[in-house]
Q: What sequence folds into this?
């Protein structure tokens, strides 16, 4: 560049795309990701809307033995009824709402813990990092599923919050590890040192200077861990260690399929829930992958 | 004499596999009011290590700092992070080598310049905004009201370095430490930035420690020069004396390796070898001896110290009295 002060100004006019623009561009390029994004958002929104405004949970969960295994389309049961005569569609909507909200809450809790610890570890390094890393390694070696199952069987009164907390207890580890490694490299950049030379305190540097620069990675991580948490909750409920039987869950509906008669003869009980789980997981994962690609694209731009 | 900062017998060591190796060894220097002190030396000589430890940017986990850095009758070596935060950005400013990586990519220029003022200046929001505009004006950035709203990637390299200088100047510091402030810039921009630094220095009477590997830069702006080799100061003198009668073989080699316009093409004398890595550094005797093997061992001191050869001119070791460039001329 052979420029003088005035010519240098020309550079000012051209501005590389910002983060959001890169993300949008990635989604526009990838029609399937776009479809997944809107499908997932629309799906989740309509499930929540239906669960709160259209379906009465008490009514849905009332046992009506005469309606036992009503077939889809009969007696006003759009998707039929289960062995206790409860509406499948209603259970599906309420169950999906429960799964989504539980997964969402777990994601919030574990993200806050994971991001906080990860940044502190990566920024300070040294003994803080070493000590926390030992704890994380310890958590990684634990058989998570077994511990949750044991916990659920020995705790007498356990409901939604207990389930959320016990899953969260194990799920922050992955986020913390990822954030740590990103913060470790980002924290060595000169702008962090430059902030220090202005007299800015560590806390401010970490959460106001460093954190926004990790945001593209964090969005990906949070999205994917949300999908993971939907899987864990429905999986546990499927095994009978998730939500109590009185609370509808997608996993409980799918678990009816363990009965061979229902599996082959009464497909409407379990198949819709299985499909819904599949679609939710695929949709969120696909969005997460597209976000990851745009995060990488951003990294290439510098 | 108006001493702003004095470094006394400073030793900075890094831990590598449980052993500490000194990257800065027994360095004593002082900075006076209203002067530009240049520190020169090839890359790896410990210049950045020295600069960053003055403002406490070193990682305490694996860095050991011994000796004294005296500033306002206080020893900065013993300062805590909180104590440093009261100085940094307030009375001591710092300018980094690469302005692109030293600016937060996601923060507006205006915010970044204001950052240091939030902690040190008693200004309200509008006063701060005014000061930011005034600083941008002062460092020669056209159209400040627009630039404050821009992000670093929207500026050119030279403009970014001007922003860095504005940040360092924000609270009217007594001392500015600039670590290779022009190395990442194009030659024409380099000259502009140096002019700006010199101009601002004359205006504000700030003491500047300018770190560089480029003797051309030194000649242009410095008042006094310290030449560093392998973690030690090997020669220190006012700039005219250093360029007029350089003594230490290392200084003379550095001067020789500057391409001269009137010299015959391709006939560039260079010193052999490179700065040894930290673990391989000779810790006894003259550290430069391995690079001038044709000089007899007896010419070197056993434990070389700085000798004052004329007022204000210090040279380490005695080998300079016996030093001559080898006949062989290297082609590069
Ligand atoms: N954090 C560190 N850990 C270990 N060695 C380091 C570290 N920082 C610098 N060094 C070593 O210290 C020596 C001096 O480095 P530096 O101060 O960056 O030199 P300069 O700025 O003069 O190029 C080099 O040998 C370098 O490899
Ligand atoms: Mg350096």
A:
């Amino acid at each position: 560049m052979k420029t003088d002060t005035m010519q240098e100004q020309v550079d000012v006019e051209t501005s590389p795309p910002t983060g959001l623009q890169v993300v949008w561009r990635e989604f526009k390029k990838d029609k399937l990701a776009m479809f997944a994004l809107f499908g997932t958002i629309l799906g989740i929104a309509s499930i929540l809307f239906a669960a709160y405004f259209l379906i009465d949970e008490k009514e849905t969960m009332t046992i009506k033995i005469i309606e036992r295994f009503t077939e889809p389309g009969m007696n006003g049961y759009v998707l039929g009824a289960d062995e206790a005569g409860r509406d499948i569609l209603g259970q599906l909507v309420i169950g999906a709402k429960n799964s989504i909200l539980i997964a969402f809450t777990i994601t919030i809790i574990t993200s806050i813990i994971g991001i906080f610890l990860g940044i502190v570890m990566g920024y300070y390094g040294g003994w803080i990092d070493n000590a926390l890393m030992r704890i994380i390694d310890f958590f990684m070696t634990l058989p998570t599923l077994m511990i949750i199952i044991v916990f659920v069987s020995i705790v007498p009164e356990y409901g939604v919050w207990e389930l959320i907390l016990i899953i969260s207890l194990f799920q922050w580890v992955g986020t913390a590890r990822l954030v740590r490694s990103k913060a470790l490299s980002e924290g060595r950049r000169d702008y962090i040192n430059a902030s220090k030379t202005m007299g800015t305190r560590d806390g401010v540097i970490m959460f106001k200077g460093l954190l926004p620069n990790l945001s593209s990675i964090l969005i990906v991580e949070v999205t994917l861990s949300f999908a993971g948490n939907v899987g864990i909750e429905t999986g546990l409920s499927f095994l009978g260690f998730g939500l109590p039987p009185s609370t509808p869950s997608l996993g409980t509906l799918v678990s009816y399929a363990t009965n061979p008669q229902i599996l082959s003869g009464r497909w409407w009980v379990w198949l819709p829930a299985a499909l819904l789980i599949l679609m939710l997981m695929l949709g969120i994962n696909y969005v997460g992958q597209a976000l990851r690609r745009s995060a990488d694209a951003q990294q290439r731009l510098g | 004499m108006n001493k702003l900062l004095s470094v006394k017998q400073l030793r900075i060591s890094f831990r590598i596999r449980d052993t500490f190796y000194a990257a800065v060894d027994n360095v004593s220097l002082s900075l006076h009011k209203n002067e530009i002190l240049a520190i020169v030396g090839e890359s790896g000589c410990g210049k950045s290590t020295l600069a960053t430890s003055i403002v406490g940017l070193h990682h305490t986990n694996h860095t050991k700092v011994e000796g004294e850095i005296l500033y306002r009758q206080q020893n900065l070596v013993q300062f805590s992070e909180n104590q440093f935060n009261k100085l940094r950005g307030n009375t001591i400013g710092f300018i980094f080598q690469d302005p692109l990586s030293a600016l937060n990519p996601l923060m507006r220029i205006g915010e970044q310049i204001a950052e240091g003022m939030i902690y040190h200046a008693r200004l309200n929001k509008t006063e701060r905004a005014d000061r930011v505009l005034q600083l941008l004006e002062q460092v020669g950035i056209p159209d400040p009201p627009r630039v404050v709203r821009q992000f670093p990637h929207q500026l050119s390299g030279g403009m970014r370095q001007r922003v860095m200088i504005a940040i360092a100047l924000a609270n009217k510091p007594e001392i500015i430490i600039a670590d290779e402030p022009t190395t990442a810039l194009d030659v024409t921009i380099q000259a502009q930035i140096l002019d700006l630094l010199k101009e601002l220095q004359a205006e504000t009477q700030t003491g500047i420690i300018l770190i560089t590997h480029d003797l051309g830069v030194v000649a242009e702006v410095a008042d006094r020069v310290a030449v560093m080799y392998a973690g030690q100061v090997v020669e220190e003198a006012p700039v005219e004396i250093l360029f007029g009668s350089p003594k230490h073989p290392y200084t003379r080699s550095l001067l020789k390796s500057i391409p001269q316009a009137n010299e015959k093409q391709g006939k560039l004398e260079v010193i052999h070898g490179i700065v040894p890595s930290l673990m391989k550094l000779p810790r006894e005797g003259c550290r430069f001896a391995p690079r001038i093997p044709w000089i007899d061992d007896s010419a070197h001191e056993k434990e070389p110290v700085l000798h004052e050869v004329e007022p204000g001119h210090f040279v380490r070791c005695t080998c300079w009295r016996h030093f001559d460039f080898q006949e062989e001329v290297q082609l590069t």
Notes: The domain at 89-301 of chain A is CATH 1.10.3720.10 (MetI-like fold). Residues B 47-48, 180 surround magnesium ion (ligand 2) (CB under 6 Å). The first helix of chain A runs from residue 5 to 13.
